[in-house]
Amino acid sequence: MDSPTLTLVLPAYNEAERIGPALDELFGYLRRRGEAARDGAPGSGRLPERLEILVVDDGSTDGTADLVGARPEATVDGDGAPLLRVLTVPHGGKGAAVRAGMLAATSLGIFFIPALFVAVERLRSRSSEKAPEAPPEAPSPPPDSDVAHAE
Fold first, then answer.
1. What is the 3-state secondary structure (H, E, C) of 107-136?
2. Residues near 134 by Cβ (< 8 Å), separated by ≥ 6?
3. pLDDT tens, 58-76?
4. Is 8 exposed, middle or buried, given 0-12, 13-18 or 19+ CB atoms closer than 10 A?
5. DSSP state for residue 44 in the 8-state scheme
6. I need a labelling partner for 44 at 20 to 30 A (CA). Which of 1, 4, 109, 113 fits?
7. What is the total count of domains within the chain?
8. Domain carrying residue 81
């Protein structure tokens, strides 16, 4: 079994409602393996072949760890290593979860992804919103008004 060359650590606490769509989005991106992703962002083809996604469940009470562990990516692949692992730790906060994940990672390159990909729903909604319009400029006062010549 080859060790992964890059580990992505995802701290999670009571994320049962959001973690499924977030992981779907992440694994969809990773499977495309192109040089460019949607909207011109860098593609996953630039990442190493062997990746490990490590979800650190920070003592969730909503079944987050069970949902992650039941995903197909959590099963052993042809190399004898799952693409997705879940590590459950007692609730100690985000910092403790990130630290536990960093210590449990098996690769040389380790990154953590904060706030569960900044909530997939927010990212999707932002991409569909148009940019806000600038407020209209206030008209300049006439040159002979008191405002224009105030000292």
1. CCEEEECCHHHHCHHHHHHHHHCCCCCCCC
2. none
3. 999 999 999 999 999 998 7
4. buried
5. G
6. 1
7. 1
8. 6-121
